[in-house]
């Protein structure tokens, strides 16, 4: 597992906190991780990556 430091603009964090806190995670790091995973899944990167690992 890779750990990184991420800076989020205040306005963006207010939106995340208001609309996503408690819905896709409780902790700040959990929310950001889930946003990234949802984006990668939506763009089919996770599916492509899994298919490449299986061959």
Give a description of the structure.
With about 55 residues, the chain is mostly helical. It has one domain (about 10-55). The chain contains three helices and no strands.
* Count of domains: 1
Low-pLDDT residue intervals, each spanning 5 or more residues: none
Major sheet characteristics:
none
Shape label? globular
| Extended strand count | 0
- SSE string: HHH
Average per-residue pLDDT, rounded, comes to 89
**Range of helix content:** 55-70%
Measured distance between first and last alpha carbons: 23 Å
Q: Total helix count? A: 3
Summing up helix and strand content along with how strands pair, one would put the structural category as mainly alpha
Strand content: under 5%
Measured on Cα atoms, how large is the radius of gyration? 14 Å
Secondary structure layout plus pairing:
Layout: H1 10-19, H2 28-42, H3 45-54
């Amino acid at each position: 597992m890779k750990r990184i430091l991420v800076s989020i603009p205040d306005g963006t964090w207010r939106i995340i906190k208001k609309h996503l806190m408690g819905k896709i995670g409780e902790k700040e790091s959990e929310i950001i991780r889930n946003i990234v995973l949802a984006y990668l899944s939506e763009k089919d990167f996770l599916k492509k990556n899994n298919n490449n690992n299986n061959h």
